[in-house]
Amino acid sequence: MKRLYNLLGISTPVIVLSAVMLVVSLASQPARAEQQPDTLLREAVEQLLDELRSNRPKYEADKCQLYSLVNDLVLPQFAIDKTVRLILGKHFKAANPEMRSRFTDAFMEMMIRTYATAMFEYIEQGLVPPPPEILELNESAGTVLLRQRVPVSGQAPVLVDYVMWRSKDGHWRILDIRIDHVSLVMAYRLQYDPIIKAKGLEALIHRLETKIEDC
Predict the structure, then answer these.
(1) Where are the domains of the chain?
(2) CA dihedral 47, 48, 51, 57 (to 10 degrees)
(3) How far, rounded to the nearest angstrom, does the alpha carbon of residue 89 sit from its chain's CA centroid?
(4) I need a surface site. Which of 8, 160, 171, 203 has the fewest CB within 10 A?
(5) Distance (Å, rounded) from C-alpha 182 to C-alpha 190?
């Protein structure tokens, strides 16, 4: 359990930046059948870092612009609806459409702020993760499992697996991220489930919404 807390706390900003660079690479490329998800990263991973290095003062001075950048590049690349269903589990069916929408918005806004913090932290460390490699690819099912060993300053590299799903529009989207074989989707589910059982989904949504800065 201690390891799980570390993954959701100290290590998370470093890990989620790897996911940012992965989804940015996917977002920057047109859907082409001959290209695999792992090779896309090699072509576009520097795009986000170059933008931050070139315009760092602007983003440091205006966090809202930073959040907007992350939102535009990252949010569309997640299978958000599927991920939210997995996180909420049985509570998803019990929630009305308004509560589902509010939870989705609050959760993703929280993640955007985590990504934004991770960007600058990773740039300061000067670390560049290697491209992920394909472990499993099922073209007929439209699923792929990528693995990446992410360097962390002063620590051993962290094993990061990306579970991706190809949507109907042909784009690969992240469904889950596993850190040292621990699913972040399941980690959040374990974190949120007792709160929902004890106080209700509305209480969890309110807690997430209060942590979000206005822009």
Answers:
(1) 2-210
(2) -170
(3) 19
(4) 203
(5) 12
What would the CATH number be for the domain defined by 2-210? 3.10.450.710
Q: For residue 20, which amino acid is it?
A: V
Only one residue has tokens 């822009």, namely: 215
Residue that has been written with the tokens 């094993």 in this structure:
159
Helices (H), 36-89: 37-54, 56-61, 63-74, 80-88
The rounded distance, in Å, linking the Cα atoms of 159 and 116 is 21
The pLDDT score that the predictor gives to residue 149 is: 83
DSSP string, 151-185: EETTEEEEEEEEEEEE-TTS-EEEEEEEETTEEHH
Query: Can you tell me the distance from the alpha carbon of 128 to that of 46, in angstroms, rounded to the nearest whole number?
Result: 10
DSSP state of 129: P
**Residue 151, pLDDT score:** 76
Going from the first residue of the chain to its last (215 residues), give the mean pLDDT of each consecutive group of 10, the final group possibly shorter: 42 55 52 50 59 85 86 79 95 96 93 76 67 80 84 78 85 85 91 97 95 75
Identify the DSSP state of 214.
Answer: P
Burial class (CB in 10 A: 0-12, 13-18, 19+), 8: middle
